[in-house]
Amino acid sequence: IWIEEGSAEFLALYLADQKGWLSFRQTMEGALNEAKELRSTVPSLTIEDIADNRERVAEYCGLCYGTLQYATGQWATAWLANRTSIDSVFFDYFPSFYELGPEGAFEAAFGLTVSEFYVEFEKFMELPFEQQMAILPNP
After folding, report:
1. pTM, whole model, 2 decimals?
2. Distance CA 135, CA 102 (A)
3. Mean pLDDT of 6-28
């Protein structure tokens, strides 16, 4: 669920910046702060939990689904777009989802399994703030 919700937010913010309606960078900074705050409150909770173990998420923080789905999902989308391209996220992954299934579409679009992604994304989330912000594309 994080990729559907997070990528929708990412794209909306990216396009809104192009129209001059908001600052993509500033809004993504806020999402990163929100994701980091949740991580400091519940350190063992990851984006993988929202996909694989919603009960665990509910046990830890009840209504923090939004932070995992949206704020952390936006950054997962940014990470995937930085690894490949924005086009890969929206024109390769989503169109092939029903044909290849979620795992197959993910691997075909991004060149790694979902499990490999979770490991790499967790490493990314441990980087300093400036390094994380540096991956954002310019709208």
Report:
1. 0.91
2. 25
3. 96
